[in-house]
């Protein structure tokens, strides 16, 4: 009986140690948390700028696999666009691995767009991600950084961000993984409370005040990673939606969609200029020509407003670290991308023992021996 009690107490102490492994975050102290490495969760504009002096950043992002088919949409909608300052626009692609065409990833990178992480498997059920351990996240997301760099032949140090599948974070484990994998920012965390005015990006050195819409959310002090809050839109029924294609009450016509986009944008532009997120899946656009046309019209308007800038997510973090007023921002040199070569290689009939499927894969490197997957990201 005594040995059973001892074992029980050991288990309790082990559990307590695991829970205390990371220190619980304390309320933010603005005197200790200063740019460029720390920022309290807040609706305050970085640098104490007035809204009229603050660049209005627009974050257009696409999720999931990058294929030859959806790249045709991207070529039509976003290629050759410039902001009013004549610099090329920025767009961020949160890509998962399965069915991705890495030749197209290389093309998007060479167009100056940002490639970011969305896991290797994007597996279901959603609860896998809710309870994923640090080790599982490192295999799913940390290893994906190496995988993309190898097969698309792009520099690993240009891959900065992550969006969790289904926007399902794993609490502290998500940000511990980011810390270890050298990932700069997360864009998975919706807020329905801090939308008007919106919440600006912040770090997790101290306690977050953001509402936890899809738990578990982080509770520990985890210096390093940044959070880009996904400021929700309001649909036509007054309900919040984290992504455009997740809105329930939506318009019918092209003009109504255009007005819907603009109304949600104005909340930011005439507010505290928190970054405006236009988060969407390409598969929602392609079969809806009226939505496609409304998006193009909306982007045309944004690209002609002098203090509005479509940028990638990492550029927003760079600005928050070192905020400058819009009259200085417009004078900055445009973002430049060093071209990444691609030796197109077609790899048919690659078998995956994990999914029990065969895959057709296009890469900018040599073909793997088997279909790359979790625990074997390079298919060795």
UniProtKB/TrEMBL annotation:
Residues 54-185 form the NodB homology domain. Gene3D superfamilies: Glycoside hydrolase/deacetylase. Keywords: Signal. One of its GO terms (biological process) is carbohydrate metabolic process. Residues 1-18 form the signal peptide. SUPFAM superfamilies: Glycoside hydrolase/deacetylase (SSF88713). InterPro entries: CE4 (IPR052740), Glyco_hydro/deAcase_b/a-brl (IPR011330), NODB_dom (IPR002509). CDD domains: CE4_CDA_like_2. GO terms for molecular function: hydrolase activity, acting on carbon-nitrogen (but not peptide) bonds. It comes from the Eukaryota. This is Chitin deacetylase 8-like.
